[in-house]
């Protein structure tokens, strides 16, 4: 789970929004690679990283927790095409 905010107002998330949480899936060679991919991707959208919470490998996540079907679909797309996938942005004020 990644916590982000708009770098400039108004931005992608909306004028009265403080930030948003979003699941991000990426094929990475370790935690540093994962963080770098996230930072590069959110920068492209004018977002700034606040924090990365509960970073976990996908295989560990699906084996130990209930995983939303949307996240499973994103993982299947990622396996086929590579890159990085954003889940739903959950905004907060």
Structural class: alpha+beta
User: What order do the strands of the largest sheet run in, or round the barrel if closed?
Assistant: 4-1-2-6
Global shape: globular
Low-confidence stretches: none
Can you count the helices? Answer: 3
The major beta sheet can be summarized as: 4 strands, antiparallel
The percent range for strand residues is 25-35%
Mean pLDDT: 91
Work out the radius of gyration: 13 Å
The number of domains is 1
Which H/E pattern describes the elements?
EEEHEHHEE
- Helix percentage range: 25-40%
Euclidean distance between termini CA atoms: 18 Å
Write a structural description.
This protein is α+β, with helices and mostly antiparallel strands and 93 residues long. It has one domain (2-92). 37% of the residues lie in helices and 26% in strands. The strands form two sheets. Strands 4-1-2-6 form a four-stranded antiparallel β-sheet, with helices on one face. It has helices spanning 31-44, 58-64, 69-81, and strands at residues 2-6, 19-22, 24-26, 47-52, 84-86, 90-92. The model has no long low-confidence stretch (mean pLDDT 91).
Features:
alpha+beta; globular; 93 residues; four-stranded antiparallel β-sheet
Brief write-up:
The protein has 93 residues and is of the alpha+beta class.
Task: Give the secondary structure arrangement, pairings included.
Blueprint lengths: L1 E5 L12 E4 L1 E3 L4 H14 L2 E6 L5 H7 L4 H13 L2 E3 L3 E3 L1
Antiparallel strand pairs: 1-2, 1-4, 2-6, 3-5
């Amino acid at each position: 789970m990644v916590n982000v905010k708009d770098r400039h107002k108004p931005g992608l998330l909306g004028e009265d929004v403080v930030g948003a949480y979003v699941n991000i899936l990426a094929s990475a060679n370790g935690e540093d690679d994962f963080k770098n991919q996230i930072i590069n991707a959110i920068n492209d959208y004018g977002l700034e990283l606040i924090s990365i919470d509960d970073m976990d490998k996908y295989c560990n996540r699906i084996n130990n927790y209930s995983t939303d079907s949307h996240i499973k679909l994103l993982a299947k797309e990622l396996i086929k095409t590579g890159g990085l996938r954003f889940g739903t942005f959950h905004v907060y004020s």
